[in-house]
Structures are given as C-alpha cells and as structure tokens.
Specification:
Layout lengths: L1 H10 L3 H34 L3 H49 L3 H6 L2 H43 L1 H8 L2 H38 L1 H6 L3 H53 L5 H42 L17 E9 L9 E9 L3 E5 L6 H7 L8 E6 L2 E2 L5 H5 L2 E5 L9 H5 L8 H10 L3 H4 L19 H15 L3 E5 L7 H15 L3 E5 L3 H4 L4 E6 L2 E6 L1 H7 L2 H10 L10
Parallel strand pairs: 3-8, 3-9, 6-7, 7-8
Antiparallel strand pairs: 1-2, 1-4, 4-5, 9-10
Helix pairs in contact: 2-3, 2-5, 2-10, 3-5, 5-6, 5-7, 5-10, 6-9, 7-9, 7-10, 9-10, 14-16, 16-17, 19-20
Length: 579
C-alpha cells in the first residue's frame, strides 16, 4: 500500500494525462463489454433465427468496435508510456540534484558504481513497470468490471460461481508478490555490484593490463554476472508462477461454467446465444484479471526500486548557512578544531589551533595519514569539524553560505579533475562568463597557452575523459589556469606537483608562483621548492600540530620537521631559482 501511495504521488503532476487515459480506459472497457454483449444477438439472430439483416450489420459492428478499440488503446497506451517516461525523467533529475548537494563524505562511503546503478538501473526499471502497470491498472480493472456486468446481467448465478475462485487466486498472488519484492531487491543489489565492477575495471584498465589480470577481471565479472542471472531467474519464476496460478484458477472457473451452463442449455433454461454471450464475457474477464495480477508484481518490483532510491533521497544534504563570506581581509582561524570520520574510532585531527593571516603561504607537512588533507578539506566545508570552529575574518564558516565560502577558495591537487570536453570549457569551469582575453591570459599565466595553441583545434580541442589526451604536466597546468581564472583569494594546493617529472614540475612551479601571488595559500607538498617559500610551516603528527615556524627555525629546533627534511628532502636537487 505504501508503494502504491508513492507511485500515486509520482503520478500527481500529470493528473491531466492520467484523467484522459482513464476516460479512454473506460471507453475501451465499454467496447470490450459491448463485444461480449453482441455474442447473444449474433448467435441467436444469425444462426438460429436466420436473420440476414443481422448477418450484414453484425460483422460491420464488430469491425467498427475493433477499429475504435485499437485507436483508443493506442492513445491510452501512448499517454501512459509518456507518463512513465516523464516520471523517470523527473526522478533522475531530482535524484541527481540531491546527490550534488550531499556531503563529500557520502562519496567516500558509497562506491561510484552503486550510486550509478541507483540512477540508471533502479530508476530505469521503474519506467516500463510504471507505464505498463499503471496502464493495466486503468484498462484491465475497468474491463473486468464491464465484462462482469455483462456476465451478471446474462446469468447472475453462473457469474457468482465463476468468480468464487478469485479470492484464492488473490491470496496466492499477494504471497508471491511479497517474495518477488525481496528477490527484486537482491537482483538490483547484484546489478549494482556489476556496475561497480565495470566502473573500477574501466578506471583501472592500465593497472589491469600491466599486471596481466585481464583474465581474472573477466572471470570476476562472469561470477558477478552469474549471481545476477540467478536472481533474475528467481524473479522470472515468481512472475511466471503468478501466470500459472491464474491459468489454473481460470481453467477451474471456466470448466465449471461450461459444465453447469451446458446443462442449462440442454434443458432449455438458457438459449445458446445467452450462454455463449455469458461464456465469452467470462473467457474475456480472465485475461485482464491475469494482467491485474501482474500489476501487483510490477508494483512489488517498483517498490524494491523505490526503496533503494529512497535510501539516497533520505541522506541529509549539506547544511547551508545564510551569512555571506566576503573576500578575506584579515585572517583564517582554526580554534580547537577536531575531526573524526564516521565509523572510525580515532580522531583524524585533534585540537587544531592555527591562525593564517591574509597573504600568508602556509605549508602543512607530516607523514602520510597524519591529517594534512583532512585539515584543508575542512576549510571549504567538505567536512564539518567534530569539535571546535573555523573562522574567516571572525565569521564562523558553519554559518556561512556554501556558495559564498567556496567562491573564495581555489583548489589545485594531485588528483586532477578534468572533464571530457574542450580545453576552453575546462578552463572556464569556475567562471563560465569569462571572455576570450581572460581565458587566454589565465592560460598564459599557467604556462598552458603554449601547448594549447599547438593542438589542431587549439582551445576547442577535446581532451578526453579525465584529460587522458594530455600529459601529467599539461593536465596540471590546465587545472592551474582554471584556478587563476576563478581568481580566488584563498588557495589550497594539495601535493600539486608530487607526480610530475622534473621539467613538468619546473613549468608547474612557475605557474603556481603566478597563482599564489597575493593569495592566502595552504600548501600540502613533498617538494622542498614549494615548502621553503612558505611564510609558515605547520608540522602535523597523529592529527596534532606539533611544530610551527619557518624552514630555518624548524631545522634549528631539530624536531620532527628536521627528520622529515633529512629523510625526504636531502637527496632532492632543488632549483633555487624557483624559490
């Protein structure tokens, strides 16, 4: 019942089409009843009374009724299919819109493949189910009523006998429907696993090939596909079991009607035309009754999809504040900030207190896993602190408008995010209204213009998924050009040069130098050339700030920073001209 209410709610925006489809359904049902009704005058008038006028009229009437029924059925079916498609379109739009405003933490817990499966497979299942189930609910229920009316009019006692088997059938259909819902949920979980495997395999195709794991990857896919096949066949068995049940019930009812009704004809209690008109109505009523049983199956499968979709829709979106953050004038402050990831016992950050003045370059260093990225992720509110607060010019960012806060921040990281689009659109992503001069100047400042104009289509060149057609250094410079064009007063550099060769790093360092100019910058880096230019170095260990100072000050103290320097930096050749 809850699923039916949900489906009705989904259909509400299209009540006009639904009402029109309902009217057409009533007309179709009336025609079906009329066809059953005509059997008596056709048999009695033509075959027994030898009425030649009826011999001409009846075939024409039947032809007209079939033409009308076909036309109305086409219009009704088209309307209901369009409603199903519109509902699916709206659900995808709404679900994707909801996903875009979920916290970043959601995407760390849920796999991309699972989320994609909800948007594509689960919602896709609804399209045909909603279109056909709702259509059948309208047409077949009205048809059953019309045909039963004919049957009761012709012979009410026989009609009662014929429908006594329906309660048992409805009970069986209900039991099967409940099982079908559970099986459908499992089947959709299995297709989610397949989607996850496909997503990971395509993303990691180079790694699969370099380790020669193509065969293993294919075998794993076959196993997952076989699991989905098993669940699919369980669904098929249950659906076909419903059809079998209705066939058996229908056969019992009709067999009894033929036996008892035939006796009435033999004894002269009924005319052959009356009996066959009644029998036609009963024969015809079992087909829509069987389709109505499939409506229940469809609703159960839709219910399974709706429950999985609701799991996402019930996720709480990011909490947006109302205070507008203006470009930084004084400082950013972390006051006693702590953070723990959901489901993890130990804190990623503990009692972080840090003040960064406007224009400062702060380098955050420490071993892997000490919380460097977590710390900078708190500033654009990718996560909210578990304790303490962060302030920009005295404004608590938890009360700030996310759009105004993130509008002040630019991010360049080692995980470069580029889209399968032209160069121009990737650069203007942060400022869609930028003009041509702004785009070119940003590219020049990022030392990207030189290689861009060498492309055959220059700024109109498609760079491929993730910028696959570019080198690592070129991808990084495109991302820097994007940040320069946005012109944010606060900048986060998260190991932006960690995976580049020496030449690419030199070019990127020059671009970063242009980007960092006159900005408040947070730098996470392993390269000494970036860290030594910092006005302040913050050393993290086990989620805490253990040292703060300049490079020279921290070297003199002989603490953790000096050990990191000796381990990581002493063997590196540094181009002093870049400092």
């Amino acid at each position: 019942m809850e699923a039916l209410k949900r489906i009705i709610k989904l259909v509400q925006p299209y009540w006009g089409r639904v009402v029109l489809a309902g009217i057409l359904s009533l007309i179709i049902s009336g025609i079906n009843g009329g066809l059953a009704w005509l059997v008596k005058p056709a048999l009695d008038g033509i075959f027994f009374e030898k009425n030649e006028t009826l011999l001409i009229i009846m075939p024409l009437a039947v032809l007209v009724l079939f033409l009308l029924r076909g036309s109305f059925f086409f219009c009704q079916s088209y309307l209901m299919r369009s409603i199903g498609a519109k509902i699916v379109r709206d659900m995808r739009n709404r679900l994707f819109g909801h996903l875009m405003y979920l916290p970043v933490g959601y995407y760390k817990k849920e796999s991309t493949g699972s989320t994609l499966s909800r948007i594509t497979n689960d919602i896709g299942i609804l399209q045909n189910l909603l279109a056909y189930s709702i259509k059948d609910l309208f047409v077949e229920s009205a048809t059953v009523v019309a045909l039963l009316a004919v049957a009761f009019y012709r012979r009410w006692d026989l009609a009662l006998m014929a429908i006594t088997v329906f309660p048992a059938a409805l009970y069986g259909v209900g039991r099967i429907g409940k099982r079908l819902k559970n099986v459908s949920i499992k089947a959709q979980q299995k297709i989610s696993i397949i989607t996850e495997h496909l997503t990971e395999s395509f993303a990691g195709i180079k790694m699969i090939k370099v380790f020669g794991r193509e065969g293993d990857t294919v075998n794993r896919f076959k196993d997952k596909n076989q699991d989905f096949y098993r669940e699919t066949m369980r669904s098929v068995r249950l659906i076909e079991l419903t059809s079998l049940l209705m066939e058996v019930v229908g056969g019992l009812g009709i067999a009894f009607v033929i036996w008892y009704g035939g006796r009435l004809v033999v004894t002269g209690t009924m005319t052959p035309g009356e009996f066959f008109s009644f029998l036609t109505a009963i024969f015809m009523v079992y087909t829509p009754a069987k389709r109505l049983s499939n409506v229940n199956n469809g609703i159960q499968q839709a219910r399974a999809s709706l429950e999985r979709i609701s799991e996402i829709e019930n996720k709480e979106q990011e909490k947006d504040g109302k205070v507008i953050i203006l470009p930084i004038k004084e400082a950013i402050e972390f006051r006693n900030v702590s953070f723990v990831y959901p489901g993890v016992r130990h804190e990623a950050l503990k009692d972080i207190t840090l003040k960064v003045k406007k224009g400062e370059i702060v380098a955050i260093v420490g071993k892997s896993g000490v919380g460097k990225t977590t710390l900078v992720d708190l500033l654009p509110r990718f996560h909210d602190p578990s304790g303490g607060s962060i302030y920009v010019d005295g404004v608590d960012i938890s009360e700030a408008s996310l759009k105004s806060l993130r509008g002040q921040i630019g991010v360049v990281s080692q995980d470069i995010i580029l889209f399968n689009d032209i160069v121009r659109n990737n650069i203007v992503f942060g400022k869609p209204d930028a003009d041509e001069d702004e785009i070119v100047n940003a590219a020049k400042s990022a030392f990207a213009h030189e290689f861009i104009i060498e492309f055959p289509q220059r700024y109109e060149t498609i760079i491929g998924e993730g910028g696959v057609r570019l080198s690592g250094g070129e991808r990084q410079r495109i991302s820097i050009a994007r940040a320069i064009l946005k012109n944010p007063p606060i900048l986060i550099l998260d190991e932006a040069t960690s995976s580049l060769d020496t030449h690419s790093e030199m070019m990127v360092q020059k671009a970063l130098g242009n980007l960092m100019e006159n900005r408040t910058t947070f730098v996470i880096a392993h390269r000494l050339s970036t860290i030594r230019r910092a006005t302040k170095i913050v050393v993290l260990d086990k989620g805490r700030i253990v040292e703060t100072g300049t490079h020279d000050e921290l070297i003199e103290r002989g603490g953790i920073y000096k050990k990191l320097y000796e381990l990581q930096f002493s063997a590196q050749e540094v181009d002093i001209s870049l400092l």
